[in-house]
Amino acid sequence: EVQLLESGGGLVQPGGSLRLSCAASGFTFSSYWMHWVRQAPGKGLVWVARIYTDGGSTGYADSVEGRFIISRDNAKSTLYLQMNALRADDTAVYYCARETRGSEDYWGQGTLVTVSS
Amino acid sequence: QSALTQPPSASGSPGQSVTISCTGTSSDIGGYNYVSWYQQHPGKAPKLMISEVSKRPSGVPDRFSGSKSGNTASLTVSGLQAEDEADYYCSSYAGSNSFVFGTGTKVTVL
Fold it and tell me: Which residues pair with A89 in a beta bridge?
């Protein structure tokens, strides 16, 4: 059974940093592109970032480019999102998701990040 | 990376059909056949309902179907059931290793 379990969310002050993790199991993690998607309270889904199987290629939404870094450790079957220079509008539930042929076919349950003083 | 445009709401009675549109540009929907649709119930993670414009993943009822014409994709739910009441989001590959989601549509079963 495919499982994705996010962790690392919490309350952080504006300008601060936070690293999210996503532990994957039930599939060959190193064979799949992976994504981060976020959803602000009461709002819609917003794509955040994507990483190739070996970590050699990444893509970011304009809103996080230069502040967030997506990475992975295939030996640990874990996806990461390093978030720097956090702003109030980064407050959201952050989901990790597996990609298969252009679709996020499995999602975690999400971890809440709150940016507030 | 502007969000794809969806109607805020759609509704239908049980047994009826509802169609949701998703409008983008030639740089996303019109340029690639990587359009997906997701269903999200309150407090839950999204669930993939349609991939690659019109493919249904295993376990998704055949009441759900997808299509695309030009820069607009559509999701049709036929034979509406109470459990179909949820938020629906489209998504498309947008080139340069990026994706974009739609604004979301709340489907109400009357």
Answer: none
- B51 in contact with A at a CB cutoff of 8 Å? yes
Task: Read off the DSSP letter of residue B102.
Answer: B
Amino acid at A71: S
Name every residue whose Cβ is closer than 8 Å to that of residue B82 and which is 6 or more positions away in sequence: B14, B109
C-alpha distance from A54 to closest chain B C-alpha (Å): 15
Q: Does B24 touch chain A if contact means CB atoms closer than 8 Å? A: no
Please name which of B62, B64, B54, B4 lies closest in space to residue B33, comparing C-alpha atoms.
B54
pLDDT tens sequence across A39-88: 999 999 999 999 999 989 999 999 999 999 999 999 999 999 999 999 99
Biggest CA-to-CA distance, chain B: 42
User: Which residue in this structure is represented by tokens 């980064």?
Assistant: A90
